[in-house]
Design a protein that fits this description.
Two copies of one chain form a homodimer.
Chain A: H1 6-14, H2 17-24, E1 33-34, E2 40-45, E3 52-56, E4 62-66, E5 69-73, E6 75-78, E7 80-81, E8 86-90, E9 97-105, E10 108-110, E11 118-121, E12 124-131, E13 148-156, E14 161-170, E15 183-187, H3 196-199, H4 203-212, E16 220-223, H5 255-258, H6 260-270, E17 280-285, H7 287-298, E18 305-309, H8 329-338, E19 343-349, H9 355-368, E20 373-377, H10 383-393
Parallel strand pairs in A: 15-16, 15-17, 17-18, 18-19, 19-20
Antiparallel strand pairs in A: 1-2, 2-8, 3-6, 3-9, 4-5, 7-8, 9-10, 9-12, 11-12, 13-14, 14-16
Helix pairs in contact in A: 7-8
Chain lengths: 399, 399
């Protein structure tokens, strides 16, 4: 080990016992280690454990039958104990993707202590890693110009709230240019918030990379919070440091959709953006797809581009709710498609529990001769698909 | 339990087994639970464990003797096993603070699986919680106007890098106003990065709250990355998803200090800011205090306000380095204090390993009759002190 300066030694001491151990001791392991052949080795120092397993979305999933059709759930693989209490597991060769995993030590779930890279999905933390050389190159930070990601607060009279938080991506060059930009409004799903698309969805990396490659137009991406009773993501609003939930109030009662112009008003006042339909897109995943569908139908001449990613499409999902936002959808679509969007885009996974819902919605579009672009992928209701859909959708915008 | 809609049920299924268990099953515990009397109860579902402990900075620390004087290291307290495999621990009554903790299950360190709120300090993840009713009210998100926090990229010819990332806080009202603002440059310590002050340091909350109370002037706070070889925080630059280190190259070799005008140039070009000395402050913790000292001495007429928080002050800390940034400090201070900063502020903890270093530096100031403000606190080289120092320092600026 290299000799430390006096400052470094003293500084280390000040970190307390664990940090020193982490930096120097038995737990100073590399995990995950992405090997040259694109297998991945995971390690943990757990000398007292009798069983260590890994659960990850790179393992062949377990198929389970549910009332909503077959669903994939993650399965586990065993670590082997080696020397000095270090357990190890090496995966098979993995295709390029962003992967998630957790460890189980004596059946207790925990993160990989040597991997500080985690995503929060609602109340679940999982470690992540990326394998390059393919699809995930879009999700990785590359040597390209980077956009700015800002957490801004806007006022929403429509929701009766003075301050709501959203994430705004402005592309590289925005600050130094004087030109106007088009805007994509990008909405999260149930249990998500204004952080979901930049964290789980890698939206900033996807936009940086597609723009740098000339595949996408430079655009502003606005990621608001779609939970109508929330000011901001858990921990970012007063008294909100509680366990995040996927059941938030005021998400599918018409309020978010009706109040959407508050979001647009803030953006159009504070950013250099075009304000016409053909420079405005809206897309979302799951509940955010539901919002995108009903917002673009309720405000039929506002969005030239609409993207429904694994969207809940039927108002069956919020049975019992009465709102004019959801009434007479077919009449609204007739108005919307009279002056049709340049792009109406639908993406869904073959095993998604909303697959049939999407088929029913497509029938409405087909029966009326409304044009749309359709993409079907493997897999279910998962972030892997939403990152793919964003990567496919964004290059089609504002052309 | 309330009856779930069809959508909610299907959605839950799609989350996979763990998430469902987390939301519904045995691990759906509240932890930490801040009780009315300001004790805190921690819980974990660990039916197979034979020992569960907590390590936290709210426990009486263990004193250890080191070559650098006595240092506090965290100690642990035992959980008790209750029904159904749920272990529990309740703290004593805690004063208002931001606290950090980790769990140990059969001696293996892990986070509290029911608490998604974590801070990363170099390569160590710890759970956090806040107790209000005192000092930590400054650190909590309150019902006040919030500033914008942006991650922006600037170019640094001085470091030979096209893109480096920094965090910029603009106060509430910045977007809608036309006036100019003063700027505080706020620097992190060794092992930190451009995220440290907003995450561990709660800088956005501190600024929001002090400004809303009328205690601080509205100001822009710029938090650059002080590791000269780094484009951005680990994970935010190409090929950087590795275990973060506290030993980064090019941190104390003069390069960061010399290239500092690159940071200022970007800010002064892209934000509505005053560009005179009396509207410009610089402060930092530990290595960032060292940077603040030497930047403000090397560019002696640029900063009207200087803050050294637990600063490394002596160039002993980077022995062997030759840079004109560090030569003839007393001569440089003579120039700097000829047209003295409005405020030269020093804060240090009584048990900090840099206490003596700071005493030596104060002697230089005292011997020359250079005025400064001095604050001494309990404790050592810890974020608790740096949050306190920021809270004390910011109200003194730009008055």
């Amino acid at each position: 080990m290299k000799k430390l300066t006096l400052f470094a030694s003293a500084f280390l001491l000040s970190l307390g016992s664990y940090a020193q151990q982490a930096l120097w001791g038995g737990t100073n392991l590399v995990s995950p280690q992405i090997n040259e052949d694109k297998t991945v080795t995971f390690r943990i120092h757990a000398p007292k454990a009798s069983k260590v397993e890994i659960e990850g979305d790179f393992l062949p999933p377990t198929k389970v039958d549910t009332p909503f059709g077959p669903q994939d759930i993650p399965s586990r693989a065993p670590f082997k104990e080696g020397k000095n209490g270090v357990w190890e597991y090496t995966s098979s060769v993995l295709p390029s993707e962003l992967y998630s995993y957790s460890l189980y030590v004596n059946d207790l779930k925990m993160p990989d202590p040597n991997n500080v890279y985690q995503n929060r999905d609602i109340a679940t933390m999982t470690n992540i890693f990326l394998i390059g050389g393919g699809q995930a190159d879009n999700y990785m930070v590359q040597e390209v110009p980077h956009g700015t990601v800002a957490k801004v607060w806007y006022s929403s009279p429509g929701l009766g709230m003075e301050a709501r938080r959203m994430t705004v991506y402005t592309p590289a060059g925005y600050e130094s240019s004087k030109k106007k930009y088009p805007v994509l409004y990008l909405l999260h799903g149930a249990g998500g918030d204004e952080n979901a698309w930049t964290e789980l969805g890698r939206a900033a990396q996807i936009l940086d990379n597609l723009i740098a490659q000339g595949k996408a137009e430079p655009m502003i991406v606005v990621m608001p919070n779609g939970n109508g009773a929330q000011e901001a993501a858990p921990g970012e609003a007063p008294n909100s440091m509680v366990k995040p939930s996927f059941m938030n109030p005021k998400t599918m009662d018409g309020a978010i959709e009706k109040a959407f112009p508050d979001v647009m008003k803030y953006i159009e006042k504070n950013y250099r953006v075009y304000t016409d339909k053909n420079h405005r897109a809206i897309a979302g995943l799951s509940m955010g797809g539901f919002h995108s569908l009903y917002i673009s139908a309720y405000y039929p001449n506002k969005f030239g581009y609409v993207g429904l990613f694994s969207a809940a499409t039927s108002k069956q999902v919020n049975k019992g709710v009465t709102s004019d936002v959801y009434e007479n959808l077919e009449d609204k679509l007739a108005v919307q498609f009279k002056n049709a969007p340049k792009l109406y885009w639908i993406g869904i996974g073959k095993t998604d529990f909303l697959y049939k819902d999407n088929m029913d919605f497509r029938k409405i579009l087909d029966n009326n001769g409304y044009k749309y672009t359709y993409m079907e992928t493997d897999g279910g209701h998962i972030w892997k698909n939403w990152r793919i859909y964003l990567t496919e959708f964004v290059p089609l915008l504002f052309k």
